[in-house]
Sequence to fold (435 residues):
Amino acid sequence: MSPVSSEPASAAPPVSAWTGTAEPLPQTRPLEGDRRADVVIIGAGYTGLSAALHLAERGAEVVVLDAAEPGWGASGRNGGQVIPGLKHEPDELEHQFGRETGRRMWEIAGGAADVVFDLIGRLKISCHAERCGWIAAAPHAAALESLRSRTEQWQRRGAPVELLDATRIAAVTGTTGYVGGMLDRRAGALQPLAFVRGLARAAQRAGAAIHGGSLVRELEVVPGGWRVDTRVASLTARSVILATNAYSDDLWPGLRRTVLPVQSYQVATRPLPEDLRRQVLPGGQVVSDLRRILFYFRLDPEGRLLMGGRGPLDDRGDPALFARLEAVARRLFPQIGASPWEHRWSGRVALTADHLPHLHEPRPGMLIGLGYNGRGIAMATVMGKLLADRALGATHAEIGWPVAPITPIPLHRWRLPAMALVVHWKRFQDWRDAR
Fold:
């Protein structure tokens, strides 16, 4: 197979609102020598660690390899919103995939937050998890109509969701910037870096071996399975799980070109005074809106206001986009005044052309899960379990998620300039719709 092309400049995740409050990373020394295992997992984020945990708990010998350390990518940098469901509505899934497969998909996605919170409770992971609910906020009337349909579809399926009018959403969020929204009580929040490190510790306790600083440079088919090579070590396994998501490279042919990596930017204030905490998001929910280039925000456990948004791929972080987020936060919450901003950080989100997570099985014994479109805490954790089930022999029907071919996005090589143009165009459309 093709060799990988790059490795992280630093093994540690960037400094963020999360790095100072997460428990220390468990020891994950680089792989050494030549080893054998039942399953090797490449990527130590939510997908890979969830797969490792579920495999090890069922007796499999599992080795996880990561170029940096567990949680280095999106799993340790995201906004900590645990959101069930997909961009697609349940009716749309049933129409596109057929009644039975579509039903299994919305059941899996709709129950994804339950999987996360159940795991946290069972494993006693300390990550400030709270079932506080999520609000999908409508910035204009057209968006509210789409939420009306989404709410009705989920209510028909027994989900605890409700539509909010302008008065109600202003009361629970503390801002008059939205005309309404949908409250989903299945959702919640957590400290994302603490959660991924907790998953790593739990997987180790179950018997999985985790090795950071172990960039996989080559994969090859060998008798009885696969051989994985790093710069200084090798591993032979019956099955391989690739769980690299937005940081996928050329290790598997064409995989990198099946997703569009977009940079997600976040800023955080210093902890707000108690009187402001009673005015900003007084209902305690997490929020993301329905703009084409969305904003998402919450209070963290220390009372910081976190504001996030999307931008073109630029791993250095564009200062203008950070400043834009701070301006948006002050527009939505003028009561915060000149509250100083304490943290600025960013990371990649993997978007797919069809806005669905992808499960690939390009060859026997090779499993891949990626493409969570901004809902990675819940869906990546669930995808890890699905991949573990398949690696242990579950049929495709038993898994319940369709297997997709690896189909590169056309003109992927032009993604950087193209995404910059798309982001600017969508921002213009958002501005036009809000007029």
